[in-house]
């Protein structure tokens, strides 16, 4: 582990120049020129993303988890994931988690507990996902976004691991939620 000698870590890369490349609806891309710790320079391609929320929502006495199935164009396949969505600019992650849960599953949470926030791909993206837990749910109505096509189901832990083996679940947020749920099922308490 490198020692911090002063205000900045010795591996810190100072940004010398930022060049915007692309501005989209969900992401933007920029190329930064940075000064390396040895004094040289390099470029870094960075995907800017407003962040996201995800919800591990348990129903039926914590024996089942709510998941959604939808097509993911970057992977060119249908995936099963926990309910999740992008943060709007300035939006509180807790409020966004409740909104996304209700929009995608029709369930409202009487309380949401923050479990963890994590980066998805820190080598090239700044996206942070805020993972929440909910188990006190009330059934309501699904309110999908205009361009959103998905189905919702409640699956057991065994079904979830079978979906992993089958390749139907492969995203980091859902895998992290599964490990947390498995630990909870084994110990009766949440990590952390």
Automatic annotation (TrEMBL):
Biological process GO terms, please? Answer: nucleoside phosphate metabolic process; ribose phosphate metabolic process
Q: Which cofactors is this protein said to need?
A: Mg(2+)
Protein name in the entry? NUDIX hydrolase
Going by the UniProt record, its keywords in alphabetical order are: Hydrolase
- Domain Nudix hydrolase, chain residue ranges per copy: 48-177
| Listed InterPro entries | Nudix_hydrolase (IPR020476), NUDIX_hydrolase-like_dom_sf (IPR015797), NUDIX_hydrolase_CS (IPR020084), NUDIX_hydrolase_dom (IPR000086)
Q: Name one GO cellular component term.
A: cytosol
* Annotated GO MF terms: pyrophosphatase activity
**Which family does the similarity line name?**
Belongs to the Nudix hydrolase family.
Return the SUPFAM superfamilies for the record: Nudix
**The UniProt record lists the keyword Transcription:** no
> Would the keyword Endoplasmic reticulum turn up in this protein's UniProt record?
no
Pfam families xrefs: NUDIX
